[in-house]
Every structure is written in C-alpha cells, then in structure tokens.
Specification:
Oligomer: single chain
Structural class: mainly beta
Distance between the termini: 30 Å
Order of helices and strands: EEEEH
Radius of gyration: 12 Å
Shape: globular
Length: 70
C-alpha cells in the first residue's frame, strides 16, 4: 500500500516529519515520495513538498528540524 520512512521528531516531540508516498489531497493513488509533517498523535498530516519522481530520487535525505523546532 503506502510507505512512510526516515521519520524525525521535533525537539519538543510534538511533530514528526517523514517521507511518504501517501496520496496528496485525500486521493487513493500513491504519489512520488514527498516530505510530510504531522502531529505525533497522527493528526493534521500536511505535505510539505509536491515532487515528481525525478525530483524525489535526487533529494532523498533525512529531513531535520532545526534546534528551535522550525
């Protein structure tokens, strides 16, 4: 189905960012892998990138929050 990977928690542990091929905008089909942000309880998922497959293959890196949580 859908895969999420390379999670990173915010310094206050309230948010998590991760790569996922989950559908954008509540669709049913997998998307190219995009960077997502959500609350650690799973609520409020938001995609931060909207990449093509070529862009995704060139940018897979572990996302990180800055020390101030941004």
């Amino acid at each position: 189905r859908f895969v999420s990977f390379m999670p990173q928690f915010s310094p206050d542990k309230a948010k998590i960012i991760f790569w996922s091929n989950r559908p954008l905008n509540n669709g049913n089909e997998a998307s190219p892998n995009n960077l997502w942000n959500m609350n650690t309880d799973g609520s409020n998922p938001q995609f931060l990138t909207q990449s093509s497959i070529v862009e995704t293959l060139n940018t897979w890196e572990a996302a990180q929050f800055s020390p101030d949580g941004r």
